[in-house]
Write a structure and sequence with these properties.
single chain; alpha/beta; 12 helices; 13% strand; globular
Length: 219
Amino acid sequence: MTIRVLLVDDDPLVRAGLRLMLGAAPDLRVVGEAADGAEVGALVARLAPDVVLMDIRMPGTDGLTATEALRAAPDPPEVVVLTTFHADDQVLRALRAGAAGYVLKDTPPAEIVEAVRRVAAGDPVLSPAVTRRLIGTLTSAGRDTRRARRRLDSLAEREREVAVAVGRGLSNAEIAAALYLSVPTVKAYVSRVLTKLELNNRVQIALLAQDAGVIDRES
């Protein structure tokens, strides 16, 4: 299956580099480009990309606003934010909006290609280590702890255990080992949690668990 990609960046040189990089992969196809977040909605409706590579800082409509609008629409494509790690607050906003993750603009080409493949397959582009670092340092400000705890408490016991484990940054294999489950069973629980809590991906599960303040207490 060919993965359809939309590039959104105000720098034409960046777009050209990404087009060359992704176009060299036999299973990826760049179907369109945009220089402003305001163009994204119409392009997605017309081109039906599977993945959108979204810059954050653009004149006009920035990538964060565009991501929030895109992910709020029915059947949206996955979004990977292009950024630098020091823009932590902006990355957090993108993840809360439903972005599947982010890549650095200086990431090696092969890793960017693999990131697009992973996101298209339903896996966020955040390693467990990066998830722990990013979420652990950012979620303390402005979180609604009571609401987050109520949402977690709406889950069945095993579902809640899996959600907390995701919040700790554990992979499916690590969760399976810790809870004495099979990996397919863990995946089924993660899917159930996403459905019940109306979340987009496991990164948002992790954010919710961090917001609830249960990670340190239950680790």
